[in-house]
Design a protein that fits this description.
Helix content of chain B: 25-40%
CATH topology of the domain at 70-244 in chain B: Rossmann fold
Distance between the termini of chain B: 35 Å
Number of strands of chain A: 0
Distance between the termini of chain A: 35 Å
Radius of gyration of chain A: 18 Å
Shape of chain B: globular
Strand content of chain B: 15-25%
Largest sheet of chain B: 6 strands, mixed
Number of strands of chain B: 9
Largest interface: A-B, 24 and 27 residues
Number of helices of chain A: 10
Strand content of chain A: under 5%
Shape of chain A: globular
Oligomer: heterodimer
Number of domains of chain A: 1
Order of helices and strands of chain B: HEEEHEEHHHEHEEE
Order of helices and strands of chain A: HHHHHHHHHH
Radius of gyration of chain B: 19 Å
CATH architecture of the domain at 70-244 in chain B: 3-Layer(aba) Sandwich
Chain lengths: 246, 259
């Protein structure tokens, strides 16, 4: 137990050093949220208010932009963590570093990035609209960040290269953000399988000062647990094989 | 360690897998003696690469490759480009699963891959700390191994440098040092001296001689083996199988293969 904790600490420390020593990584985490949230807000602000909208178009745009950036950045980080280091990870595993510990140390780095992105994104959102419950809003943004971090790690374990992985992630995040935004009403069960389906509703409640629906909270946590198990299982089984489709 | 399935006999050698009654008693005794020296054995290793997509084609790389490496032996494995040398090496260390055959090892295995499989933005010190943790070494043992190998291979001035800031030769030295830091019983090296200057090349062979004296086995895979007198045995990998060509020299790789 003790040795696993030490190994986890060493793995996390190495992962964070690797990440922080690339200045562009940190710059993107700080610069992209204001750019994306402002752009989304301005673009949607030019739309007329539709019947299906729960708030003013500009506010909805900023909300959607906040969720998009808080999910997409950790997703990309999760993806690159797995794909870029695949060969070195393979050697480390052969030397005796257990893959589940490796996975956990990479996930913890994704959590750190999610927390940072959530803080910056929420701060930017607060300049455009009132956030009734900032603590819950922050927690939810960090939560969706970790969700997409797991999605990124899952995609990274399956696909062989960064290019394909990034394209899949962009497509998924775009569709997810659009479908969960409430702009389009649909009864499709498939929409419920998208990662942001439940958290989006919770985040809107937190910003609007409404009570969070218990069923939606439970569904979000259940989704996260299932995604964690899936990502860990796939990573442990196929990451060393160069991706399932390699 | 995945794929390496240690089957160690009571005397420390690899467990005898022959069925009863297949050899004479004196033959069995001789074989047992030889077996106790074997630290790595691969039997009937087969491997084919195929795409998981329906449109890809399958390429058979290894087809019943056998090899035994004994304690304190320096073995060369030569083969033409694309003959499957690196695939064989990955299977021997457990980085790749074979489609057929078995690999057994009776001790710690060190692997120096052809490409430097290291983390670019970690310093050499941090690299040793991370891989030392993987090997299960404590901080003191890691520091001892790091300083000893840095001194032997000549990268002691760069311990605080990031891997991506090192020259190609120094990266290769660190690559080798990571394979050696846990004092392995068998060291498997894939094209180890690519990028070495002459002094480092000589240091490498001094180190190999030292390891050999300590009973460490060294298997070197290369498309070109110079100075064949440095090797106890040389195998040639061709058509998916390994053949002992210590006496006659390489046929498939031609004169360019073994000198």
């Amino acid at each position: 137990m003790m040795s696993t904790a030490v190994r986890l600490r060493v793995g996390l420390s190495a992962t964070l050093r690797e990440f922080l020593r690339e200045p562009l990584n940190v710059a993107l985490l700080v610069v992209l949220p204001p750019v994306v949230i402002t752009s989304y807000g301005s673009m949607m602000g030019a739309f007329p208010r539709l019947h299906s909208m729960d708030a003013a178009p500009g506010t909805l745009g900023a909300l959607n932009g906040t969720l998009f950036v808080a999910t997409f950045l950790p997703g990309v980080i999760g993806l690159f963590q797995v794909i870029s280091a695949r060969s070195a990870d393979e050697r480390l595993a052969v030397c005796g570093f257990q893959r589940p510990v490796m996975f956990t140390s990479r996930l913890l780095a994704v959590v750190a990035a999610s927390v940072l992105t959530a803080a910056v994104s929420l701060a930017v959102l607060a300049t455009r609209t009132d956030v009734a419950d900032p603590a819950v809003g922050f927690t939810l943004l960090a939560f969706v960040g970790v969700l997409y971090g797991l999605v990124g790690m899952l995609v990274g374990a399956v696909l062989p290269r960064e290019l394909e992985g990034s394209l899949v992630l962009i497509f998924l995040a775009d569709v997810d953000e659009l479908m969960s935004s409430g702009l389009f009403r649909t009864d499709s069960v498939l929409v419920e399988l998208l990662p942001m389906h439940y958290p989006h509703e919770l985040f809107q409640s937190a910003v609007g000062g409404e009570t969070l629906a218990t069923g939606t909270v439970v569904a979000s946590l259940g989704y996260a647990a299932a995604l964690f198990a899936l990502a860990l299982g796939v990573y442990t089984l196929v990451a060393g094989e160069g991706g399932v489709l390699g | 360690m995945p794929n390496i399935r240690p089957e160690v006999a009571a005397d420390g050698g690899i467990a005898d897998e022959r069925p009863d009654g297949t050899s004479r008693p004196e033959e069995t005794a001789r074989n047992d003696e030889a077996d106790s020296d074997v630290v790595l054995r691969a039997t009937g290793v087969g491997k084919a690469y195929g795409s998981r997509l329906p449109v890809g084609r399958t390429v058979e790389v290894l087809n019943g490759a056998d090899i035994e490496v004994r304690a304190g032996e320096v073995v060369g494995i030569v083969g033409a480009n694309g003959s499957g040398k690196s695939t064989l090496m990955k299977i021997l260390v457990g980085a790749l699963e074979a489609d057929a055959g078995t690999v057994e090892s009776s001790g710690r295995v060190g692997w120096c891959p052809q490409e430097e499989l290291l983390y670019d933005r970690l310093t050499i010190r941090e690299t040793f700390r991370l891989f030392g943790e993987a090997y299960g070494m404590d901080r003191e043992a890691v520091a001892d191994a790091r300083d000893r190998l840095a001194d032997q291979l000549g990268f002691e001035d760069f311990l605080g440098y990031r891997v991506d800031h090192l020259s190609g030769g120094n990266r290769q030295k660190v690559n080798l040092a990571v394979a050696l830091m846990h004092d392995p019983d068998v060291l498997l090296l894939d094209e180890p001296y690519t990028g070495f200057d002459w002094d480092t090349y000589l240091s490498f062979w001094e180190l190999t001689e030292e390891l050999k004296k300590r009973g460490t086995s060294v298997a070197i895979i290369s498309h070109l083996i110079n100075e064949r007198e440095r090797f106890d045995r040389i195998f040639e990998l061709a058509d998916g199988t390994l053949e002992d060509v210590t006496e006659e020299g390489s046929t498939q790789a031609g004169d360019a293969g073994v000198r």
